[in-house]
Design brief:
The two termini are about 40 Å apart. This protein folds into 2 domains: about 80 residues, NusG, N-terminal domain (Alpha-Beta Plaits), CATH 3.30.70; about 55 residues, SH3 type barrels, CATH 2.30.30.30. With about 160 residues, it is of the alpha+beta class. The chain has a 5-stranded antiparallel sheet with strand order 8-7-6-5-9, with no helix packed on it. A two-stranded antiparallel sheet has the order 1-4. The protein has a two-stranded antiparallel ribbon with strand order 2-3. A hairpin with a 2-residue loop joins β7 and β8.
Length: about 160
């Protein structure tokens, strides 16, 4: 789809990131879209709608009712500033946390609880935390900014996943 738009001299942007997957070799990363299923294009829909709508590979053009949303150029520029030299979006991991680090929740409904960081969800800047709960373990997703390392705390009751 991007190639078809670029052939028509239309600017496109498809932000991607590299993520770790358990099944890959150590140190290897897999590339995935930051916004799966979405491609940004700088285009006048009044001039190009019919042509773009007929392109192969297009599922739908985003719209709300009859209006096409407009994304400010600054948003795309902000995403581009987060790109690595290889062109992938750099996703921040708060506090350098790693899987199985002991964490304390600092905000939201679980504030004050402690658990293990089960995994980092890079595209959404969220984390999955494993808590001991009622004779078992529960995984809860939350914004990564709501957890901090609790290394050095004397008491942490949690199991490894």
């Amino acid at each position: 789809m991007a190639a078809q738009l670029e052939q028509r001299n239309l600017e496109t942007y498809f932000p991607r990131l590299k993520v770790f997957r358990k099944y890959l070799l150590p140190g290897k990363r897999e590339v995935e879209p930051l916004f799966p299923g979405y491609l940004f294009a700088r285009v006048s829909m009044a001039d190009c709608y019919a042509e773009i709508h007929r392109m192969s590979g297009l599922r739908e053009i985003v719209r709300f009712g009859g209006a096409f949303p407009h994304l400010e150029a600054e948003i795309i520029a902000a995403l581009r500033r987060r790109e690595t030299p290889e062109g992938y979006i750099r996703v921040r991991q708060d506090g350098g946390l790693r899987t199985l680090d002991r964490v304390e929740v600092t905000g939201g409904p679980f504030a004050g609880r402690r658990g293990l960081l089960a995994r980092y969800l890079p595209a959404s800047e969220r984390v999955c935390v494993l808590f001991d709960w009622l004779q078992g373990q529960v995984r809860v997703e939350m914004p990564s900014g709501q957890v901090r390392s609790c290394t050095g705390f004397a008491e942490v009751s949690c199991y490894r996943p």
